[in-house]
Amino acid sequence: MESPKRTCQGLALVITNYACGKKIRNGADNDHKNMEKSFKHLGFEVICYKNVTKSKLTDLLDECSKKTDWNKYNSFAIAISSHGLEIEKKENGNTVKHHAILMFDDVTFDTKDVLGYFSDKECTGLIDKAKIFFIQACRIPESKSTTAHKSLGIGLDQGVPYNPPQPSPTQPNPAQPNPAQTNPAQPNPAQPNPAQTNPAQTNPAQPNPAQPNPAQTNIAHPNPVKNNPVKRSPVIQTALDTTNIKDSSVEDKVEIDAPEAQIIYPPAPLEITVVPCYNDMLIMFACPEDYYAFRNAQGGSHMLRLFSESVDAWHKKSDPTNLMEMLRDVTNKMSRMEFYYGLKKYKIVPNIVHKLKKDVIFNGGNIMYT
């Protein structure tokens, strides 16, 4: 059976929550517009949803993953803009963090479940096809999301100032020779002047101090470094240092017997973050784990806005472009930005995880995953 002709790059879902319970998300409308426009410019068939509850998202993902006409599409993409957090659970003595998205009805939806709908096992129609996820949501642990933690800067990164060293005007760069020092009248001492190499100065009786004179290597005065080892002071010798101990029973006891006060501690508990990444999948979070994501009350989320600007720039050129190039453009621009929270400036950079086997190329509706 012949596959139907592809008329678009793929299918894209845009899910924007303007509020999560009583928490209003100012600027979310721009997130919605930016992602809808970006996916259309990239050649996707776009379906948009606003203020989605947990049960509604479950139905959407289940229906989408079980589509029978995935052969019409090269890829799948989904953008979710909402509140988020890391939910902490104790499992086998370890702290396991599950990233969750807060839905319109103020109920959380685990990100791992969103991704799981599109694994090779659950969605066979997308095997070997690119699956792209944009998650605009915070990743702060639930236990560190209080106002007191925020006031201490937990979940916020002030960045590291970097001031490249500037060469001093009074101290020229040693890599560049100083013209004043290359006077022919004063030759470089490292290069001998033939006119000054007087045979009288190369007298074997007066050897060059840089070259050892065999006559000076007197056997009666051996090299102190090689033949006279430094004696260890008994004042600083510890009970475990057996270098100068002659009693073999003491040496054997130290070497064989375990220390009497040995304490074996149980392994320290681990913190594990569960965010699976399946085959041919790329996930772009607005921030690294344990941090807040930034959103402007007027312009919307910075990551989605910058991605939209990058897509617009590509769309005007109409040249083939790699998805990773656009994402690098977003992270590069965000790394140079500063965001105010209260009276302090902070920085944040998106976090990208992927298991793509091929390049994702956008080329005006033609084959994308090459």
Key words describing this protein structure:
370 residues, alpha/beta, six-stranded mixed beta sheet, four-stranded mixed beta sheet, 8 helices
Order of helices and strands, N to C?
Answer: EEEHEHEEEEHEHHHEEEEHEHEEEE
Instruction: Sketch the major β-sheet.
Output: 6 strands, mixed
C-alpha end-to-end distance: 23 Å
Briefly note the structural class of the backbone.
alpha/beta
Question: How much is the radius of gyration in Å?
Answer: 34 Å
Q: Helical region count?
A: 8
Helix content: 10-25%
| Integer average pLDDT | 76
The poorly predicted ranges are 199-205, 214-222, 229-262
How would you write the strand order of the largest sheet?
4-1-5-9-11-17
Number of E-type strands: 18
Shape: globular
Q: How big a fraction of the residues is strand?
A: 15-25%
Verbal overview:
With 370 residues, this protein is α/β, with parallel strands linked by helices. The chain is built from 8 helices and 18 strands. Helix 1 packs parallel to helix 7 (302-317). The two termini are 23 Å apart. The model is unreliable at 199-205, 214-222 and 229-262 (pLDDT under 50).
Layout of strands and helices, then pairs:
Blueprint: E1 10-16, E2 19-20, E3 23-24, H1 28-41, E4 44-50, H2 54-65, E5 75-81, E6 83-91, E7 94-102, E8 108-110, H3 111-116, E9 130-136, H4 147-151, H5 224-227, H6 248-256, E10 271-274, E11 281-285, E12 295-296, E13 300-301, H7 302-317, E14 321-322, H8 323-335, E15 339-341, E16 344-346, E17 351-354, E18 361-362
Parallel strand pairs: 1-4, 1-5, 5-9, 7-10, 9-11
Antiparallel strand pairs: 2-3, 6-7, 7-8, 11-17, 12-13, 14-18, 15-16
Helix pairs in contact: 1-7, 7-8
